[in-house]
UniProtKB/TrEMBL annotation:
Protein name from the UniProt record: Thioesterase domain-containing protein
GO molecular function: fatty acyl-CoA hydrolase activity
Transmembrane segments: none
InterPro entries linked: 4-hydroxybenzoyl-CoA_TE, HotDog_dom_sf
Length: 159
């Protein structure tokens, strides 16, 4: 038997550039998440989308990155297809898309566990800020791209 080091726990957070390589989390609605129609309120989905993105960042960022940079949401575009009911657990998949300067598109899908159809699909634009100046960086530094396991040359660019 060989003595191998433990696998890198952040490895599953790197290279998330498609729904096939997405970072996956699971949630179950809380009673306060349910609206008057008896399903998860649309605002809750947006919170889950943000929580998944923030968890991905915090999972790959080292202490220096966390100190120097912060991501803010510039835009959410959310499509709602099917409701999530109080007793249903969901799978949340998030991955990075196109890059331009300090901006990244992030994609998120939420679906009920065991369902082939998504309930919510979102595209969010995130901007990297300098935490001290609170101004956008000129571009996403290579150290951050490396931490995300991304090759800038292979990423799509958006207008």
């Amino acid at each position: 038997m060989t003595n191998r080091p433990d696998p890198d726990p952040t490895a599953v957070l790197r290279g998330a550039i498609s729904d096939q390589t997405a970072v996956i989390s699971h949630r179950r609605p809380e009673p306060a998440d349910i609206d008057a129609l008896g399903h998860v309120n649309n605002a809750v989905y947006v919170r889950w989308i943000q929580d998944a993105a923030v968890a991905h960042w915090l999972g790959i960022a080292d202490a220096e990155m966390s100190r120097r940079y912060v991501w803010i949401c510039l835009r959410h575009e959310v499509d709602y297809r099917e409701p999530v009911l109080p007793d249903q657990e969901v799978e949340i998949r998030t991955w990075l898309g196109a890059l331009k300067g300090p901006r990244f598109k992030r994609h998120t899908e939420i679906k009920v566990n065991g369902s082939a159809r998504w309930s919510v699909r979102a595209e969010t634009i995130w901007v990297l800020l300098n935490a001290e100046t609170r101004r956008p960086e000129r571009r996403v530094p290579k150290t951050i791209l490396d931490a995300f396991g991304l090759n800038e040359a292979a990423l799509p660019v958006f207008p």
